[in-house]
Predict the 3D structure of the following.
Amino acid sequence: MSSRKRASNFSLIPEPLARGIRLLAGPARAPALAAVIAGLFAGAWWWSWQKVGADVLASDSYWLAPEDIVVSNEVDWIRSDDIRREVFHNASLESRLSIMDPELTERIAAAFSLHPWVADVRRVSKRHPAGLAVELEYRRPVCMVEAPGRLIPVDVEGNRLPDGDFALNRAIRFPRLVNIETMPVGPPGTRWGDLRVADGAAIAAALGERWAAFRLDRIVPLRRSDSERRPDYVYELYTHGGSRVIWGRAPGAKSPGEPSVAEKLRFLDSWVKRHGTLEGARGPQEIDVPYLLKRGRTAGRAAPARR
């Protein structure tokens, strides 16, 4: 057939369709066919989704209940299932959440970050079938503040923690900070608002497991300055046997000549290693740690405790 004849035949077909036929019949027919097939497949998928999409998304595989959220990094002082339940209740989250929600991980992270036991939400990741993995960093109780009729836990930064999660027999195992007449200014998860609480928590955290090993009982703050604008406190530790250990200023406090936390801990470790206890041989005694350290620097050795 002559080229004139073929041109005549194409002239009877609408131009857009004719261009498509020439494309499929020409040297670029392979890419063109692939594009046509892809278009047909996409169209078929779209049509099918319109028919069944709602039913698919309504299936249990795409919806989350509270028990479908796995909270990792469990710790022994709180229960992760309690946190999960409280987060859903306090944040007013729906009882069922769609895994297809593009903002789901951000919503869950924001809800968990508001819980007073949560210091940081490290990661929230989706799982299929419907599930979420939440990785948390928890606040750790280091000290109990003695308040009228109860003990209130705080973390190393002096943040108030929920006290209802501790039975009394567990609470009394923690370092106890006494003579605090103030009450927290905010809800659990916020700072107490008293410098002595932050200082006492820092001392308790520095002592760590030594607290039980040294048979310590309580931390007592003493005010050294009458200035309301710049209060100055020193701290004493009392043992169960009544001995008094003068600790001095809190970690981080700037005072000329004040021994460092590491120096104080080494001194106490050495004392207990030599004597076996912080108690006196004849009863309660006083151990002035800053004084003995300063005197030891001058004399080249630690002096005996003053009684």
Residues 51-58, 298-305 have pLDDT under 50 and may be disordered.
